[in-house]
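so my prof wants the structure for this chain in the tokens format not the other one, which i didnt know existed until like an hour ago. anyway here's the sequence
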Amino acid sequence: MNYLAHLFLAKPTADSQFGNLLGDFRRGVNVASYSLNVQRGLENHHTVDKFTDQHELVRQAKLLFHPSRRRFAPVAIDIYFDHLLIKHWSAFTDTPFSLFCDERFALLERRLPVMPRNMQHSVGHLITHNWFNDYAKEEGIAKAIAVVAKRIRFKNEFHKSVNDIVCNKEELESLFLSFFPQLIEHVHERGIEERTE
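here's what i got, hopefully its the right format
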């Protein structure tokens, strides 16, 4: 899943929010140097990713992408699923979306000084430019995918994933609405961040 979903599935604490995003930036990081709560947030991140990557509904979503772009389909799906989470926000929480963003950004800002440098850069941009406002709009999805395509270090057509999304919007939305409640339930059942030991 992408940033928004990871923050949504984390606890509303600074350490949890940090840990649940750290999974995308942990290469070369001494995880043991962080608090137990950060480490549990990181474990929760990995639980979310593993469940998502192995889920049959997500595998069905990948097949909706052109074979030449299927290698990067999981990235496009993560971004689009964040869009769909925003679209159906009220189905999953009573907290207004703008309030959620304000609260999560404030928590992340408290941990910016101890984040790995590349994470500081990305999270700083996320907060300053509120990427979730882009994710909420269809054109914002195209923008986010174009940014990722430019970061890939070899020639690719990842930017054309937008065409696959446009052609399969209804099916992707249906798959998301079936999948995301199962992901929420899986996180609750695992209860990684609820341990008291």
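also thought this was worth mentioning. The chain has a mean pLDDT of 91.
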